Records
---
Amino acid sequence: MDAKKRFHSVRLNKELCKGCTNCLMHCPTEAIRVRNGRAHILDERCIDCGECIRICDYHAKVAAIDTLEDIKHFKYRIALPAPTLYGQFRNIQDVGVILTALRELGFDDVFEVARGADIVSRAISEKMREPDLPRPMISSACPAVVRLIQVRFPDLIPNIVDIRQPMEVAAEIARAEFCKAHSCEPEDVGIFFITPCPAKMTAIHSPLGQEKSAVDGAISMLEIYGLIRPMLSRIQREEHMHGTSTSYGIGWATSSGEAKSIFQENALNVDGIQNVSRVLEEIENNKLSDLAFFEGNACTGGCVGGPLTFENNYVAKNTIRKLVASTLARNPVTPQQSVPVSMINKYPIRLDVPIEANPAMSLDENISVAMEKMTRMNEIIADLPGYDCGSCGSPTCRAFAEDIVLGYAKEMECIHKLRDKLQSMAEQMVEVAQIRR
Amino acid sequence: MSNTLLHAEYPVEAEDYTCAGEASADIKRKLKQLGVSANVLRRVAVASYEVELNLVIHSDGGVLSLEVTPDRVRLISKDRGPGIPDLDLAMREGWSTASETARSLGFGAGMGLPNMKRNADEFDIKSKVGEGTTIQMGFLLT
């Protein structure tokens, strides 16, 4: 299995983990178990959505991510700010202030991912014109949602739009333009995405639908926030760069931004990974076959709700809404008007490696063996209390039964079973004691 | 069936919209755990949901059963009535006798039975007014 080699940004800090059941209960793919007093992440199931980072009160779940130090490995450095970064600062009239601040941090160039989103929007609009597409088409923008589909909804893989993420498209263009302007080699340029989530970091190291990512690393938005916050008021007064994206590209930071950018009326947008799961179930049941496009975001509110953001996601969403309105007033163009069709064919934009199903949920490769295990699992479940308390370290009684069958757990690790057993043993001892008297 | 390896039964009550969809959701989960291919999974998902909802909307209640053998998945829906007077008409796309309640919930487009037939590799329906309807669907795994 190549599962062992899989890169994950979401990791555990063993020292800080108390072994509580918070992350256990919130993982959308049941990828966490508590064993020997601390959490373990099942590599093959983890989709790097970051739900556990958000929920952990002890900050024991962390994102492995690059820092500003890491950009020094490259001769030239380019920052790719996700539009979500703009939502972290209230009262910003022009995104150029933030772009200038990023330059001052040591980047030679800044390329807006919102501009990449404009190009991707145009590409998806074109894609949606193709005949006989499965309905609904599912956005490929949120890597956590794509991985959720691989693990839990493999039958929906054909519905995923085969267009790259805005970050990838932005990186391709940024590198090509920079090398042309500065007559340098592509490998001298390090491209770093300023990310709101660990899922994007994982997408860089284990790309979805493409052989290799065009991005070299990802820096947490939290780190960048802390550094540029104090710089902004000064830069605002000075001459600064200007943003180049449309208001629609900026809107990708929030849920529904993508659907709006492709001007697809018959679209549904859903945010929050559990909500996304529920709607994917409905798509699986063919209940939403009248829908043309489905945009799912793992985080509440869209990328503004990412676990590596500072600002409250509702506040950030409102900030983005205002920024979209003021940008649109100043520059009333759509991605379809601002991006010529020639542009979408100039750089690699289609996913060219098939997205595979991830069989992490199956009990065995051999269906007959899997059936035997399931039969045993059902017998075990019938004998468990059904409290789903998590005390055994598995998220539900069903998952516990599954773990027993797979050899990862033992029945007496259920404290309720253990208590019953102790009680009956105690009763037997009393009986024995009474015989002797 | 002597070679049946896995069997599960789900009672489905008439007009019970609270639990509607739970049987097919469990069937889907089981098949995913068995590692059934994406293509079969998708077709069983659609057909099991349709047949479950048919029991809720049109029948007087019944039982949905799942049988899995290494070579096929079988879904059997048996209801207690009322039975379908004209099967040819019922199999026609767009034909529906769904109640107002069902229609207000977005059902009753008359695609249920045709959808099941289209998605299953084997399809058989038998019905007798006053007795009930039995639908058998097979999905080949090999």
---
Amino acid sequence: MSVTKFEISKGTEGLFIKNSRFKTTLVSFNFYLPLEKEKAALFALLPFVMTTCSKDYSDFRKLNFKLSKLYGAELTASAEKTGDYQLLKMSISVIGDKYALDGEVLTAEAIKLLCSLIFEPKIINGAFCESDVEREKRKAIEHIKGEFSEKRIYAKNRLISEMYKNDAYGIPKCGTVEDVEKINGKSLFAAWQEILTKAFVRVNVIADNMPNGLFDDIAERFSAVERNNITDIYNTKKTEEAKEVKIITEKSEVNQGKLVMGFSLDKEFSDPCVADSFVAADIFGGGPYSKLFSNVREKMSLCYYCSARSVRVKGLVTVESGIEAKNAEKTQEAVLEQLKMLKEGNITDDEINSSVLALSDSLNRYNDSSEGLESWYSTRIFDKQLITPEEYSEKVKAVTKDEIIKAANGIKLHTVFLLLPEDEK
Amino acid sequence: MKREIFESSIGESYVKAVLPSGVTVYVFEKPQYNSCHAIYGTKYGSIDNCFSVNGGEPIKVPDGIAHYLEHKLFESEEGDAFDRFAKTGASANAFTSFDRTCYLFSCSDRVYENLEILLDFVGHPYFTEETVRKEQGIIGQEIRMYDDSPSWRVTFNMLENMYHNHPIKIDIAGTVESIAQINADLLYKCYETFYNPSNMFVCVVGNVDTERVLEICKKMIADKPKIEIERFFGSEPQSIKNPFVEQKLSVANPIFCLGFKQKITSPFRRLKSKVCVSLLLEILCGECSPLYEELINNGLINDEFSYEYFNGYNYACVMFDGESDNPKAVEKAIKDEIKRLRKNGIDKKLFSAVKCGLYGDAIRQYNSVRGICMNLTEGAVFDYDILEEIKLLKSVTLDDVYKRLDIFDDDLSVLSVVNPLE
């Protein structure tokens, strides 16, 4: 296992994560752009259109045939939110050539395919093909609307949009239905040109051996593009402490209520490299040893799940729980009571040891999953210095009780979102 | 001790051993990996709600009891199993499905210690009326959570209208009413029956030493008198109950689950059927198929579309799930495509492409210790060698796959739809 970073060209870097245990090679292109209300929907649609056809593969059936013939090469597209940025990802994972039954070349072919999808899309008269765009628009709209159907996701999204009303982080990662509807082949083509010009680009490769000439090839492809105003990825605005806690209650025809609480995290602890708040949030509501699980669920039987998680780059901690409407207030109080205990240093050595052991054990498992590693390095883009899961595990182990208490004192309630069943008629 | 070694051309192998206690142990070494994934499971799930032991009188137990028992096994007189794993750093969990209950952990350190904890806590039930009662609030909330899950509801509505009597139609966690009938005596009764080593299996995958794993299993799993369990699933007519069912929930888009009930010829699942039907489903509506292209281009499905061959003890059906404004049009298109395939046969190019794709997918599974472990569990429940799948994917013919079209009978289909509230 080793990780090497390469400067491919201006604003484009490559990461080779050498790992010989997998039967596959995984290559991902990650485009980072500032989250902007006007462009979120447009950018988010791009990876999906670009992974359904290209200059060489005029429709998705032809492309899917090719992927099958590459022994089920997995082509994926996504649009995520990470800090105040939109992350557009396109990746391919393919099994090693030695497994091919008739001596076919798989790895090089799959990588060539991925590069061609990104750099040689199907463009007709300066626009993406309208029928491709319309098809992906429909799917994107159904996807955005569909988030309402899964109430756990819906409640979390509602909290974030309320908590960050005038902040980039409040913009939905795939934009809004109205914005998707406005997209056409021409505007999408302009967006494609814009991401090639402006996005900060990271190419992650997880393989036994570095594919021959890949980074040179990418450098050459980017040399044909004028790269300017490249996204500065270090500008995520930290969550400000709330002057007054905002409580929003919404009614819906559901059986179970959802309680989601958003907390700001003191700036001092919101550097993703700092492990103090990571451990503090875990003792608060991470594993089954956490305060929320062992008290709110196990002792008080108030819910099936009640957990906390931190998004340090944004300085955010969230707590989520599924509850009976009549217990909404009681659960909220119980959560805050547990946080108070943490702040007052009411933490046992067992709790600390359990959390540190569990976190470092799981960090040490990252190397066993190529998707896990890919996600580690693409979301930790904000670290000025590369940090491996093992190195981070060492930081976790070094955290002291005093540091945990200090970090916990930086967690402050900001916004509460409650989704409750309609009153009985 | 009876012991076998299974190997494959892709450089993977594992050991299967039946210990004197009757438990079957699978050890799959992955020496290059940091971590380990282990499952201790029993062939006991939500469908086993009526059974007899050693030829005695059949006993009927409340729905959801297997799942309830799973929750309660984590507790012991000295505290719960989570506390013990908290001291090693392992991540532990459990799940109950239709035909099995599995207890598991993942870890990157102290694997043998973790294995001892796993085998110990599952082997030592401890509950009192009071601790049993306490769980009702937690499981009650779990049931409520699933009541709001459209994907869960649409599937169970389909199964409820496909099966007249088979307990596959019952929700895994039971209902708030059925779990209220569960008490400590009943839990012990089920435990003594289904947690007999002869009905159980251990799967360990990762950076481990096979001999040491077998030693620990021998030491930790006590011998118990072997018992004969007979399961009663009720007689199930071949027909379905209703071809269509609809529910309204708070969803944005309508979702559907289309099922085709299969006539049962063998009560067990066979690997060859799984492989052939998987290929057939790819040919019918996979991403390379003409039908998939038609459904996507006509706006009838989106990326949520999926399909599965769902079968086990005395039940088998094919399910198509997705989101659609017009589920009936999707149903018609699928049925038409089945007819077309019957008439025109399977396109050779398409067959060779999907076979290649599934072959690659099968190899890819061996990237993940968790994936291998879950797969071994499947092999343990249905008694097959998981590595055989790769061999079958090489040898299976177009004709083998074509023959499987007879699992589809238009008269045995059920369309379940969850529509938005008005």
---
Amino acid sequence: MNTVLPRRLTIALLLLLAGLALFPAWGPLAFAAKYTFLLQKLTGIMILAILALSLDLLVGVAGLVSLGHAAFFGLGGYMLALLSPQYEAASLWVALPATMGAVALAALVVGFLAIRTAGIYFIMVTLAFGQMGYYFFNDSKLAGGSDGAYIYVKPTVEAFGTTLVNLESKQAFFFVVLGCLVAVYLLLRVVLASPFGRVLAAIGVNEGRVRGLGFDPAVYKLVAFALAGALAGLAGFLAATQYGFVSPAMLGWHQSGHVLVMVILGGMGTLFGPILGAFILELAHFGLEAVTEHWLLPMGMLVIAIVLALPKGVAGLLLQWCGKKGDGE
Amino acid sequence: MSVSPFLFETKGLTKAFGGLIAVNSVSIGFREREAHAIIGPNGAGKSTFVNLLTGHLPASGGHVMFRGADITRQPAHKVARLGIGRSYQKTNVFPSFTCFENCRLAAQSLLSTSMRFLRPAASYREVSARASEALERAGLAARAGRIAGSMSYGEQRQLEIAMVLATAPQVLVLDEPLAGMGKEESEGMVGLLRDLADTYTLILIEHDMDAVFAIAKVLSVMVNGTLLESGPLEQIRASKAVQDAYLGDGAEAY
């Protein structure tokens, strides 16, 4: 398990990133009237990519298949809704750390109970906690129940009385989300290369041996669970900011499964793979939907085809293409 | 309390799986820097004994003492941290990591904690140095960059030992290090183990009697979960009870 990407792949990924970052420049020329809609679409996909990245830390790296990860995504969104005064803006400097802190805490509690189990039981326990979160917001009066809740004014980003970024601007928000995506990716790359990340990756490969070498796997898994939860909370916060609306569906197992497919399709444990997975899945959805109302059928076939043809996901194929051999450090 | 002559010892150690008593009140003492082999036919409870010794299984009764402290209830990762390193009967490495990365991970036990998130693991010089040293000692220096899963079986067995060495243990508990090895590979491993016996307190579980006699100074014989006899090599060789129960039976006993 190497933490350095082949150079050709790095260049290819940077080119894709540049193309994405320059979308506000070439998008209006290429898509004219549809540009604003597409800008928002891409922003939404990047938010899901952050969520997929955070899940990859658990599923791909530590071998913890969570089917309740969306609960932390939804909780992040609801935190913003709850922290925003009804007709005023919340300050990002307060709302974002409070959201991520609260979600990390929730993940710590859920993780503490869930990581005692392994394999299929871990999947079931995370699924159960995810659904508990769903019904909590669905059935309680806390934030609109099953109708969801609105965030009428987006959070402000101010320093010394001046607005740094106006999140009401779709273009500015696009760049904020892009920045978050890049930052989360780089953060996870750094963490994976650290002593903590090495132990976590080793747990994903052979947990028993990690214990035999003197590390307590439970502690490492718990910290990873909380970190992944906090990052999912960030994604939820961004989603709530973008749509100005949160609903219980954000927490449900549908959403968890959706993100899991992104991770598997993209390539587990590679970090860049799940980002690609998010784009492929969402753009395929978008493209097929435009052609036929029965888009779910070709979509399902596409997913099956990719999983069958590429057991290591799209990332596995790219790594193979870029000549990454098995050995050599 | 009298001072025990042993670095590491078990007192009446017992493990029952339901009605089956796999290890029955076994008391063995291991002296510092003494190569001690535990032999016995299949099903004698040797592997269970090792798992009890290293905290991989909870004991049903009795005690494990290390440097005068009772470590019976310590979980495996804490036992490892105390300086009791073990290897496994079945090859147990991280196949997708390189040979060096396997050892570097083991050497991270040098850090007070691996809960460090930002600095690359590769930049901890003392950790990398210890990993290299362990690879060198196990004769794998030339293989550092190979993906562990792509190495030969014998090399993976060597890596298994290198990983234990990288944790800088005081006691080495080796569960059948020669299992499944060819003749030539075995000879290399026996040489390595003899070398290690000079530096470490070695506890060796092994079927290969030639290897046992070449490495160990003290032998303990287990049969049906009980300790039949324990003592210096010559005493065990001459023991009538051991011959009857085990050695004398020749090939059948395996």
